[in-house]
UniProtKB/TrEMBL annotation:
CC cofactor: Mg(2+)
GO aspect biological process, one term: isoprenoid biosynthetic process
InterPro entries: Isoprenoid_synthase_dom_sf, Terpene_cyclase-like_2
Protein name, as recorded: Terpene synthase
Keywords: Lyase, Magnesium, Metal-binding
The EC number(s) this enzyme carries: 4.2.3.-
Record carries keyword Cytoplasm: no
PANTHER family: BETA-PINACENE SYNTHASE-RELATED, TERPENE SYNTHASE
Native organism: Orbilia javanica
Amino acid sequence: MEKPHPSEVSFILPPPLNLLPFRPHARGEEIVSKTHEWAKKKLLLCFPSSDSFDRFWKGKGVMFLPLSFPSFSDDRLFRAQNLITYLFALDDVISEDIDNNVDISQRDQTKSREVYTQIAGVFKGSHVENAGPWASALMDVWNLMAGFEEEHALRARHRDYTYEEMKFVRRKSSGMDLTILLIEYGIHVDLTDEFKESKSLRRLHELALDQMLLYHEILSFRKEYFAGLDEMNSVAFWARPGHSKLQEAVDTAMMLITKSEREFVKEREELLKTPLGQQSNVFAYLEELGYTMAGCQRFQFLAPRYHGLNHEWNGAMSGKFILTPEKTIFPSVSDG
């Protein structure tokens, strides 16, 4: 993919469908404050300095949950937020971005391997006091490690893989698979049997994952592109040399987002008319899943994590987005 300017690329987003209602958690900000206290206690030592931790926090990764899970009980939202905050911090060190440094391409992966080894040791029985701060924080939250390891392995193949292979790994390493699992935890339901028995329920799960992942791929592209890590991004995969241009790749992603969202709304409505869909646990899950998709979309636009630490979202979701190493320049609301 060629850069039209050494320090700038851009793409145009069409107006989104927004077929799903958006409803944030009523006490989200209050619970975010509690997570901040937890993070200062448990994660601060994982960072090179307090300034580094502060920059991480300004990325607003923690806002993903209160924007996306309105029906969670307060205590479970707090626990889930701790997990997600841990995973975002871990994602930064795995991608060598612990200081939000865009020039990551100049670094090696020594630090990420060191941290991965430290954490993996916990699963092999290492004593926490001997395992370091990352392992210590892990003991307070449950962590999904497979996605990070698989992304390392796939990255080593230097794009010698299919889109489907990459999508499978990205769902895990970006946390999208985990996001769906958190719904059951947060609203106190267990749909293990229903998912085993219902092809329709599994299909809605797949559509939701596709919609959420592709919004993530478009809107996290700036961060990964200027860090030299874009090879594991779907948009960059389509826009690699000899294939599509960046705008064509974004258009492909938006086409698939639109298709997934339309089909999700249609097929969810059909399932809710069936005896399975009228079960209280299934109904609650499918309602929350729709809110999660809408909240995840807005989080991708809002997060300074993806658009630069001084980013304040103006509400624009369409128009020309200019990507620079320092920030995403959003269109004005009137332009979008």
